[in-house]
Amino acid sequence: MSESLYHVSANPHVRDHGSTQKIMLDVIIALLPAAIFGIYIFGVPAAITIVISVVTCVAAEYVYQKLMKQPVTVSDLSAVLTGLLLALNLPAEVPFWLPVLGGLFAIIVVKQVFGGLGQNFMNPALGARCFLMISFAARMTTFTYDGVTTATPMAALKAGESVDVLKLFQGFVPGTIGETSAILLIIGGIYLVIRKVISPIIPCVYVAVVAVFVALFGGHGLDINFIASHIFGGGLMLGAIFMATDYVTSPITDKGKVIYAILLGILTGTFRLFGPMSEGVSYSIIIANLLVPLIEKVTIPTPFGIVKTKGGKSNE
Amino acid sequence: MALFTFSGGVHPDDGKEFAKNSPITEYLPKGDVVLPVGQHIGAPAKPIVSKGDKVLVGQKVAEAGGFVSANIFSSVSGTVKAIEPRVTPAGAKVNSIVIENDGEFKEVDFEAKPYESMSKEEVLSAIKEAGIVGLGGAGFPTHVKLAPKDPDAIEYIIVNGAECEPYITGDYRIMMETPELLIEGLNIVLDMFPKAKGIIGVEDNKKDAIAKVEALVKGDSRISVASLKTKYPQGAERSLIYATTGRSINSSMLPADAGCIVDNVATIVAIKEAVKDGKPLYQRLVTVTGDAIANPSNFMVRTGTNVNELIEAAGGFKVQPEKVISGGPMMGMAMFTTDVPAVKTFSSFLALSKDEVSANEPSNCIRCGRCVSVCPQKLMPAKLSVLADNNEFDEFERLYGAECVECGCCSYICPAKRNLAQSMKTGRKQVLANRRKR
């Protein structure tokens, strides 16, 4: 009998074919149209920035895990995704050391120091972006388009100018590498929803709340052009679809997602309309990230068969 | 027609194709049979035979050890060889009555009173006497289920024909081959609860079985067939009650609290045989299947038959399996050896050539929330499993961890391959133990 004992383990004995790596790969695929478009309109510097950022993130994770004698997990592609997201949040013409610094900050300070994948309390790419924004504000907000340095549509909007919404929607405007084309980002988002990688709750609620907020407080009333500029302009689509939906730093339940997305919309609207800067998606997301544990505390789902009444559970 | 269902659940590969078309064949054991005294939920039965006694098929060899317990009957004729601990499919050694099989299968005279002359109490005691337990796999004594505190409050007798566990095809074969026995059995139970209606719930991946049963109940105002969406765990008691009646129960309630009694197809047929034919439970249907089995089969097996005999009867292994399971792949128990008896709750022997669990190393939780969305009890396995792993059982209980039904959907779906259900089980066991202490 002892020569052939079979494997034992707790049930279930079969597993779904999904994996962390496949999920990360899907998000990377969904980002590719916007990334390729970024290279198309911003040229070679955009491609270089993307490559440097991705390589830095993967290398940082590999070296850190080697030094800490941890199992190396770069094959789960999460570092690749962080590098790609970081690059898409940078202007194309940044010096080479900027994505290097950002990548190191994202992977080591925001992600690994807190325990690696799944343990970080804010989105690594956004944490790094905000770090770079604070440290190198001028370089981070200088945008070149068609060879000339110009203001972004959001800055123009802030200055009271009107913006060509169609161009904004297509993406032929200055901005960071990956944020300009709303349509390509939405296509990526639809892909992720179809592949069941993300739930549409966060992006839909987030964008809707921003729209309502700018309609109420933007001073233009129901001016469709103004509202559409806010929706399709700046980092909202990239942030709402790809970064606010980061699993690790967003609530796990549907109810929590709704609260989180409403909060994001209000924060972004406030930053954009009343803040000193023209943009506020990144800061909104990292602030909301920090509130996720609190949101989760108050959104524990009521289990099947438990009837909740005032003052606690009735039937237990 | 809209399908009945619940919220949550997963869609594992159903594996039914292996044994689905294999008709039920009787398998008579060649060697000894081993009858553990604990083949059910509740107190172990007490042996009433001793070494050297001659026994016949259908002779009682152990008596229920309490109200929640069940009688045990010999499945062969022969001599009691020993009463000693033997390994059961659950992996533990349990005191067992070992009967040396004389190969003649001489039966006791099965006698039953004419059904029409039986009172409800006599029907119930016939079921109790026959040692019937839930044959779906849990093994809860059936006579206990059929004796609720308030019989008048029972509105639905739900027959569980969902067979949502992948690979297992026993109930399907019963519905295809002898649906009339199922209806006969259900009518016996309905006669015990005059106010109740019968609902036979079957997953819609068994359309031919639904058609067979529907044809038999056409025009019957008391029995209906509910087509259930094919989704695991559609046949879990709480999910099935919700799908068919819209009522929900939690861990502190019994189905009877929602006016329901749930029995699976094979159990209902066993009730028919006990009441009308006077036959106790000494055989059951076992699906011998999996990608490592040469000829997947559905056998009518004498309880206590050695599983190695069943493997041989199904043509043996065509490849060496990595994992063998008593029951289905989602809730079944992995066995370290096949040298065990097929007990009353042994619905299936599943041999898998690959062990998907050991092939995957668990990695960090990425909080994707898939476990939350598939949980039929609407729990948060990601959070609860961490609490259980850290021995924070009070918090585990506060976040409703004890509501877990151990269906395994969370572990199944987890992209990080975390063994969530295992932690949930541990936590739940500890909470229940703590409650008993209080």
Q: What's the arrangement of secondary structure elements?
A:
The complex is a heterodimer of chains A (316) and B (438).
Chain A: H1 20-42, H2 44-67, H3 78-88, H4 97-111, H5 124-135, H6 137-140, E1 143-145, E2 148-150, H7 153-158, H8 165-170, H9 182-194, H10 201-217, H11 224-232, H12 236-243, H13 254-274, H14 281-298, E3 308-309, E4 312-313
Antiparallel strand pairs in A: 1-2, 3-4
Chain B: E1 24-27, E2 33-36, E3 46-47, E4 54-55, E5 60-63, E6 72-73, E7 78-87, E8 93-101, H1 120-129, H2 142-145, E9 156-161, H3 170-177, H4 179-192, E10 197-203, H5 207-217, E11 223-228, H6 237-245, E12 260-264, H7 265-277, E13 283-289, E14 297-302, H8 307-313, E15 323-326, E16 333-335, E17 348-352, H9 370-374, H10 381-389, H11 393-398, H12 409-413, H13 420-437
Parallel strand pairs in B: 1-14, 9-10, 9-12, 10-11, 13-17
Antiparallel strand pairs in B: 2-8, 3-5, 4-7, 5-6, 7-8, 13-14, 15-16, 15-17
List key phrases describing it.
heterodimer, A: 316 residues, mainly alpha, two-stranded antiparallel ribbon, two-stranded antiparallel sheet, 14 helices, 4 strands, 59% helix, 3% strand, globular, B: 438 residues, alpha/beta, Ubiquitin-like (UB roll), Rossmann fold, 3 domains, six-stranded mixed sheet, four-stranded antiparallel sheet, 13 helices, 17 strands, 20% strand
Structure annotation, total helices of chain B: 13
CATH superfamily assignment of the largest domain in chain B?
NADH-ubiquinone oxidoreductase 51kDa subunit
How much helicity do the residues of chain B have? 25-40%
Number of strands of chain A: 4
Radius of gyration of chain A: 21 Å
Number of domains of chain A: 1
- Biggest sheet details of chain A: 2 strands, antiparallel
Query: Which structural class matches the secondary elements of chain A?
Result: mainly alpha
- Percent range for helical residues of chain A? 55-70%
